[in-house]
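Collaborator request log, item 7. Partner lab (contact: R.S.) asked for a structural prediction of DUF4352 domain-containing protein to inform their binding assays.
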Amino acid sequence: MAQPEAPGYYSGYGEPPQPPEQKRQVGLIVAAIVSVVVLIMIAAGVAAAVYVSNRGSSEDRVVADPTSSSPAATDTGETTTDSTAPTSGNGVIGKPVRQGDLLITVTGKPRCGVQSIGSGYSAQENQKGQYCLIDLKFENTGAKAVKPTDFGTKLVDENGGETSVDWGSYRANPDNQLPLFENIYPKKTATGVIAFDLPKDQTPATLLMNPVGDYDDEIKISLK
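Returned to partner:
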């Protein structure tokens, strides 16, 4: 008759006893914890690498930005004005006005109270009371010759009256020549005088011109 084996005793016959269930569960828990720790470490490493990469790219962009240290790029709220730069449409004495390739400048204040223009047999007397003379300079900044016209050139007095340029203006120029309205070649300048016959009690206020523009491209130059 077989005797029962004592607890914990293995006789060597048959299958070995199975490990306790509790030890197996402990092993699984430990393995899971180790896996989680490893995953956390990997994620932290990836995040650190991305941060360093982005930081380096941002620094590169800042260094490459030329406006970050350029004084010219700083907006101080101040503007500068070049008194010799040409304007369009409206102008003043001594400052060029651009129309197409032509720069137009009234070089001085009107000279009024003149009784006649020209000399000798070609002298011409005023009909209304006085001549007002306007000194002009035309400069061709383009690549082709231009021939300005005096058509539409008028002087507006302080009361709004308009007087067209006098047809005998050429007499107010040396040798009776008025090069302002002849061919002006590229990079060349022409100077001359135009005359207006005004009543004695009127004072020039504005010069209207359209030497090389379209019909509605009239420019205005203040004579005050």
